[in-house]
Specification:
This protein is an alpha+beta fold. Among the domains are: about 10-185 and about 325-365, Nucleotidyltransferase, domain 5; about 185-320, ATPase, nucleotide binding domain (Nucleotidyltransferase, domain 5, 2-Layer Sandwich); about 470-495 and about 565-625 and about 645-675, Gyrase A, domain 2 (2-Layer Sandwich), CATH 3.30.1360. The chain has 18 helices and 21 strands. The strands form 4 sheets. Strands 15, 16, 17, 18, 19, 20 and 21 form a 7-stranded antiparallel sheet that branches. Strands 8-4-1-2-3-14 form a 6-stranded mixed sheet, with helices on both faces. It is flat, with a radius of gyration of 37 Å. The model is unreliable at about 1-10, about 505-565 and about 630-645 (pLDDT under 50).
Amino acid sequence: MARMWSGLKKSAGKKRLVIDVGTSAVRVCELAKTKTGYEISKYVQREYNSDPSLEEQARNQLRSNALLEALKESKIRRRKTVLGVPGQSVFTRCRTLPPVAEFKVNQIVRYEIQQQIPFGLDQIAMDYQVLQKTEQGGYDVMMAAIKVDVVEKHLEILKAAKASVDTVDVLPIAAYNWLLHQKEMGQQGDCVALIDIGASTTDIVIERGNQFRFTRPLNIGGNDITRALAEAFNLDFISAEKIKRERAFAPTGDPQRDGKSGEVIGQVLQRLSTEIIRSFSYFRSLPGGGQVNRILLTGGCARLKNIVPYLRSQLGMDVRIAPVINNISIGEGASSVKAAPEQACVVLGMAARCWEPVAININLIPPRILETARRKDQALYWGLSVVALILIFASMVPSAAKENKRVKQRIDELRSAIRAYDPELVQRIRVGVPVPQSELRSQLDVRKRQLQTLVGQVDVLEKAKRQRRFWLDEFAFINEARPTLGQMWFSSMESCVVEEEKPQQQHGPAMRPPSDEEGSSVAPQRRGFPGLQFPGASGAASDQQGMGRGRPGGQAEEKVNDYAIPRANGVIIHGFAESDEVINEFVKGLRTTSRQMPNTWYVSASRVIFSEGSVRRVPWSILNDAPTEGGITDRGAPGGAGAQGKESLFTFTIEVALHYTADKPSPPTPTEDGTV
């Protein structure tokens, strides 16, 4: 599995403070690497009141106190922290990307996430993981994104510990990484589901064919069972939680044995089973999905008595508790992990990424924090650079005299060498006068100018190669502007150069033909493809004054380049329409439509020049031999045969000046008569 985003720091091989902040408990863990593998050197869990009826401020205070107690007991002094966010706050999707260059994957992922999330890219933290390369040369990619406000809310707890964040992991993915490290997920061809049942949510992670495929959070957890018991037996939340842990169990199917508590717990677990079945059915319908044949349980609610037989009977497949701490050493400071290993799966997964690359290496750290860390590193590098420069200059002072002596000796050696080559040149070398030039130098300058000419010609061809697909974007833009009602046919399109409109000029309605006086103010157009010019041709220089089609944003050339290929900035459209209303609708669409190109820029029309003088009524039969230039044949002249019939068409000619911008252009403001 390849990492494709280099913007994140790799923390593998570095000791970090690993914290799992759950809904009902805080866990702190530290792994140590030994000759035989890993050892859990420190593990502390502190629970707190998770009553949902508590106010947010009170719950945050209880959570902070539990973290401080856990840190005090563990005696971990790390400042850099690995923290996790719940799966229900994270947008995750698996997508198959087409075969593209690797450096374009990041751009495609940003575009895909932007299409799925109703927030701007500046408001989210995102990352992605390339899972594998497809047989067609594409990529299977898992994308993850979270709103920055949500991440920063979870990072508030670090202020009490005076720690800084290094990595923001996703809790269900961390549990999946740990079970992969333990070799518990499955063999080739298996479809295994990891179900982490927490206090407030249940997370499902599915692997098929040794590859991550699907994840989904469910809003059902252990607290739902606690609330159901509290309402059924009229208890407070803490008392109901104690009964759930010590005496409650999943229904066995025997009403006399289950009693009222079994019936209450069964109603919650039935909802959970239904949601799990729905999630499995949805996964089967996805590309690459399949039938789940085995389930591994983790999380605090997995400790509920009789839950494994209950889920096995409800889901009809193999269900068992995940062996979280098998084949791993446990130090003296981590003996408490043996009491509830199911709850330690997430924190162990986050601790493992501090020592080795994990399967899903996602880091949702906010961009603001990344930028701050980058600036601190730059400040450190600049400081070291200044110190190095000072030391270098200090070392140069005592050796300056010796270096001058060596320079003089070298000058004498060069004079001797030049004398052997050109005695006359040596005699003309004087201190304080311009250095004499050899005849070979002038020959070298001629060769350089010839080389510069060739480089200019190559640059022209390279630019034309990069911009060869601009017609596709412009045709797609024109096609989107076509009216939805009525029929329209294009007979021909040709490129043209449209000069920029003067500020004092104003255009009237779309269908008003210009008068003779107005016609004099319309900028002249150069129609047809301008073609390729030889270097130094006058046509190349003159055409560079217009707007460049290949330059996004419509910026004009700042300097005339003798080797630049003149590019048209507009299109002349000839065609036929079913009615003049269709033509007006098309003109309006050209002025209001914009299209985003693959490079995220937008193409739109800066000017739409249309005159009713180009509109003529012609018979339908002209479509059998439509003209390719402006004007029509005698068959379509006004007053011709069939011109006044109901089955007639209207010809039109429209000139469009194209405009490229980085941001989506705003729609034009309607005039007083309602036109745009």
